[in-house]
């Protein structure tokens, strides 16, 4: 995505997903106009997450955090600075991250004896401490997560998807056996998939990355991949089985039950603000964002409709206050818009911001003890009796959440192509994009050439990919065990 310059109050263009620049303009304008985020021009690649965007992130964090705790993890905080010698200890790790690391070379008015990296990820710092904290098999498994910011240098910004500094969580765990570490890797991939689908209404495919796409220093990497409306894939969370690579580099050993001193097995897994961008791209429409109710900062906006008489005006405001109070008591994030702007203006504004449900309270409806409820996703309107508002809103929230997921899933299904020849493959990548399932022999050479010629990469070897039985590689015709998932990616 390019970074178009947008006038702050610019009109929201339609969500045209057929053309990269148009889609980018919709995405960027919707985010700025809805006050989720803003650019910080003096430092390219950075952005501000404004209060509305940060509330959204906090709701997402809460959904993930409770899943981490339910699977036995505890939160902690580790230092931002990583000594260069730490990064160098795991050869592949430093090689993979070197190009995007920002270094601190001077501090306190003098040159540092050793350069400090601003963490691009924290395997090495965790490794350093785990070697001190783990002594015996009784200390295992060690399951720690941290919520933090990291820096991976970028020259241009695409809100949430591509920024130099971003927010994320990184889990780092150490285990007694390879099997346990592998189980953990898959468990957290499952947590990510469940979170994306349940909270964000974002359907994902899970699977293993090829060697070429693996995390630097991992034995195997797994990810969840979502299909964006322009037919490109977004890697939305990764879980790595690190084998004993970091245990060896940082000498993380423990005394096992049999008295032997062994190396631990480690994992790491991360999800970032990137998935927030994926969620926005997926659900929004020509009128702006559409937020899934489970994470929306405001789930219901209540708009009072002005009345002519004083008596009606006070009836409207009483009803608005009562509805807000009852919804809040039921745990709904509800808010009334008391500003003096016209109702039509307010409708547009809250639609732009993606609030899933709107209640209009006006004198005409109130005369029969009703209010009007409008869904953001379908724009469907209905009259609801005031005594039944809470119940109906709870039901509609569930419905909106479910239909956003169904819509995204139907889109993905319609845009997942099964192809058997390279000609078909190229035609799909050129005309439609989307996910393509095709046989691949396992050679990095075929993978590299396909990428060069079509810009499509192997997103994952999906779970259950072997079910189709063996076939032949679309690129060189050699025997292939499974169909893998290709796409152009963000
Ligand atoms: Zn091949």
Secondary-structure map with pairings?
Layout: H1 20-33, E1 37-39, E2 47-49, H2 51-70, E3 74-75, E4 81-83, H3 84-88, H4 91-97, E5 103-107, E6 110-118, H5 123-133, E7 142-151, E8 165-175, H6 178-199, E9 205-208, E10 220-227, E11 233-241, H7 245-250, E12 253-255, E13 261-263, E14 265-272, H8 274-283, E15 300-304, H9 310-329, E16 334-336, H10 343-352, E17 357-361, H11 363-366, E18 370-375, E19 381-385, H12 389-414, E20 416-418, H13 422-431, E21 435-440, H14 444-454, E22 457-462, E23 471-472, E24 479-480, E25 482-487
Parallel strand pairs: 3-7, 15-16, 15-17, 20-21
Antiparallel strand pairs: 1-2, 4-6, 5-6, 7-8, 8-14, 9-10, 9-22, 10-11, 11-14, 12-13, 17-18, 18-19, 21-25, 22-25, 23-24
The protein binds zinc ion (ZN).
Condensed summary:
The protein is of the alpha+beta class and 490 residues long.
Give a description of the structure.
The chain is α+β, with helices and mostly antiparallel strands and 490 residues long. Helix content is 36%, strand content 27%. The protein has helices spanning 20-33, 51-70, 84-88, 91-97, 123-133, 178-199, 245-250, 274-283, 310-329, 343-352, 363-366, 389-414, 422-431, 444-454, and strands at residues 37-39, 47-49, 74-75, 81-83, 103-107, 110-118, 142-151, 165-175, 205-208, 220-227, 233-241, 253-255, 261-263, 265-272, 300-304, 334-336, 357-361, 370-375, 381-385, 416-418, 435-440, 457-462, 471-472, 479-480, 482-487. An eleven-stranded mixed β-sheet has the order 3-7-8-14-11-10-9-22-25-21-20, sandwiched between helices. The protein has a five-stranded mixed β-sheet with strand order 16-15-17-18-19, sandwiched between helices. Strand 12 (253-255) and strand 13 form a beta hairpin. Bound molecules: zinc ion. Zinc ion binds next to loops. Residues 441, 443, 446, 473, 475-476, 478 line the site of zinc ion (ZN).
């Amino acid at each position: 995505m390019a970074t178009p310059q947008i006038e702050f109050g610019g009109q929201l263009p339609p969500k045209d997903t057929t053309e990269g620049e148009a889609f980018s303009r919709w995405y960027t304008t919707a985010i700025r106009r809805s006050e989720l985020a803003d650019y910080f021009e003096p430092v390219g690649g950075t952005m501000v997450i404004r209060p509305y965007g940060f509330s959204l992130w906090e709701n997402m964090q809460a959904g993930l955090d409770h899943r981490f705790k339910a699977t036995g993890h505890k939160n902690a905080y580790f230092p931002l600075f990583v000594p260069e010698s730490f990064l160098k200890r795991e050869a592949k790790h430093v090689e993979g991250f070197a190009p995007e690391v920002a270094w601190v070379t001077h501090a306190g008015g003098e040159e540092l004896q050793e350069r400090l990296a601003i963490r691009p990820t924290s395997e090495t710092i965790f490794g350093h401490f785990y070697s001190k904290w783990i002594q015996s098999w009784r200390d295992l498994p060690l399951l720690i997560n941290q919520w933090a910011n990291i820096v991976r240098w970028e020259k241009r910004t695409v809100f949430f998807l591509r920024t130099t500094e971003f927010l994320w969580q990184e889990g780092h765990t150490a285990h007694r056996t390879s099997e346990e570490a592998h189980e953990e890797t898959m468990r957290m991939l499952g947590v990510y998939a469940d979170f994306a689908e349940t909270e964000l209404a974002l359907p994902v495919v899970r699977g293993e990355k090829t060697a070429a796409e693996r995390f630097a220093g991992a034995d195997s990497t797994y990810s969840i991949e979502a299909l964006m409306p322009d037919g490109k894939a977004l890697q939305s969370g990764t879980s790595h089985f690190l084998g004993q690579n970091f245990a060896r580099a940082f000498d993380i050993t423990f005394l096992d039950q049999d008295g032997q001193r062994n190396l631990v097995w480690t994992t790491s897994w991360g999800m970032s603000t990137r998935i927030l961008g994926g969620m926005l791209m997926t659900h929004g429409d020509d009128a702006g964002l559409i937020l899934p109710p489970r994470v929306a900062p405001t789930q219901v906006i209540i708009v009072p409709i002005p009345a002519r008489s004083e008596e009606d005006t006070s009836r409207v405001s009483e009803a608005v206050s009562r509805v807000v109070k009852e919804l809040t008591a039921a745990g709904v994030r509800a808010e009334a818009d008391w500003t003096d702007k016209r109702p039509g203006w307010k409708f547009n504004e809250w639609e732009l911001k993606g609030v899933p449900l709107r209640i209009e309270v006006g004198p005409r409806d109130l005369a029969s003890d009703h209010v009007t409820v409008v869904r953001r996703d379908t724009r469907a309107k209905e009259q609801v009796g005031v005594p039944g508002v809470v119940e109906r809103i709870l039901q509609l929230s569930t419905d909106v959440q479910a239909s956003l997921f169904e819509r995204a899933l139907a889109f993905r299904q319609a845009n997942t192509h099964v192809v058997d020849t390279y000609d078909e493959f190229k035609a799909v990548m050129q005309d439609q994009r989307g996910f393509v399932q095709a046989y691949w022999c396992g050679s990095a050479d075929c993978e590299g050439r396909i990428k060069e010629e079509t810009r499509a990469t192997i997103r994952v070897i999906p779970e259950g990919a072997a079910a189709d039985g063996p076939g032949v590689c679309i690129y060189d015709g050699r025997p292939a065990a499974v169909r893998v998932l290709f796409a152009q990616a963000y």
